[in-house]
Write a structure and sequence with these properties.
This protein is mainly alpha-helical and 115 residues long. It is 72% helix and 0% strand. The chain is built from three helices and no strands. The longest helix is centred in the middle third of the chain and has 35 residues.
Length: 115
């Protein structure tokens, strides 16, 4: 008696599983791989002149310094705000937003420094 119930339940669940798997595969077909552009081997790769590269690096360095100054100011403001806040109290929304802004700016500096 229990064996026939088990077989019936097994058959029902197997059929339901097959239906759901069929729907899932029909909704999410496998995408084709992206096509890569063909490289024309007759043309030479163009590189910017050495003077242009140097000026780009200098500009990048200036922007990094400016962003680090801003990061320092934000971190100082954050520190002052934390010192004013009671440690047993819940942190304010402005404190959390300022911390997120510091984190975002630090990531930007990191990416710019990588090149």
């Amino acid at each position: 008696m229990f064996g026939s119930r088990r077989r019936a339940l097994f058959a029902i669940f197997t059929a339901l599983g097959a239906v759901f798997l069929g729907r899932a595969s029909a909704q999410n077909p496998v995408p084709s791989p992206p096509r890569l552009p063909r490289e024309d081997k007759t043309s030479e790769p163009s590189e910017p002149p050495a003077g242009a590269t140097k000026s780009i690096l200098e500009q990048n360095q200036k922007e990094i310094k400016k962003e680090i100054e801003k990061l320092y100011d934000l971190a100082t403001q954050l520190k002052e705000e934390i010192e004013k806040t009671d440690s047993s109290a819940v942190l304010s929304v402005s404190l959390v937003k300022k911390a997120e802004e510091v984190e975002k700016l630090a990531r930007q500096i990191k990416e710019r420094a990588k090149g």
